[in-house]
Amino acid sequence: MIQLKSKREIELMHEAGRLLAETHKEIAMMIRPGITTLEIDTFVEKFLKSNGATPEQKGYHGYPFATCASVNDEICHGFPSKKELKSGDIVTIDMVVNLNGGLADSAWSYAIGELDEESSRLMDVTKTSLDKGIEQAIAGNRTGDIGHAIQSYVEGEGFSVVRDFTGHGIGKTMHEDPTILHYGLPGKGTRLKEGMVITIEPMVNAGTWQSKMDKNGWTARTVDGKRCAQFEHTLAITADGPLILTAH
């Protein structure tokens, strides 16, 4: 069941989104060869606490960390670790912030040092695909319009869109209706209405779109070992168009 949000609820989520964006800015300044994703995770938890917020996914179905940290062929839900990142790596940091009951969700991929040409293009295409999806997030459109815009662009650039993981509604809990596919047909799916708050979070692979699951039961990675990038925003559907709540 889709829960439409009041202006006050959206403002609470926007406040959480501003803090989340600020957290990503801090992470961007930390990113360098030699840092570990566990160091980033520890920083995030302390930074949120110092700003009166908590990491919503910590403890979610037993998930043990404040962030998800996915490196190279990991698609999503990677566990932070003590392994040092090296030049040429891609790392995606994904988190949900709870500030005074308002939730916001955003993932960002970061380049460690210098990337090879394919990895750099993968990052650029993934970020642009998010922008193209957001352009379709207007009242009266359907969720399929978002997915089609992302899929047609990504596949036209020679990459693939992960299908096993999706965007979603967000509100009092992290995952609400509707499901936001990053592929599909225009004019199909749930109609977008003013007051809906959703995430758009395309995961784009350099190779095939299929994924496999690690033994930890959380981390998904590409079946062919090729790289993945992801960018995600939380946004509200308004009469004036999409309002990005997690803008950097």
How does this model look, in words?
The chain has helices at residues 7-30, 37-50, 117-135, 143-156; strands at 53-55, 68-71, 74-76, 90-99, 102-111, 160-161, 167-169, 176-180, 197-200, 203-205, 211-213, 220-222, 228-230, 233-238, 241-244. The protein is of the alpha+beta class. The protein has a single domain (7-244), classed as Creatine Amidinohydrolase, CATH 3.90.230.10. Helix 1 (7-30) crosses helix 2. The protein starts with 6 loop residues before the first helix and ends with a strand. GO terms for molecular function: initiator methionyl aminopeptidase activity. Keywords: Aminopeptidase, Hydrolase, Metal-binding, Protease. It catalyses: Release of N-terminal amino acids, preferentially methionine, from peptides and arylamides.
Key words describing this protein structure:
alpha+beta; Creatine Amidinohydrolase; 4-stranded antiparallel beta sheet; 3-stranded antiparallel beta sheet; 15 strands
Short description:
The protein has 248 residues and is α+β, with helices and mostly antiparallel strands.
Backbone structural class = alpha+beta
In percent, how helical is the residue content? 25-40%
Number of helices: 4
Report the major sheet.
4 strands, antiparallel
**Kindly state the mean pLDDT as a whole number?**
97
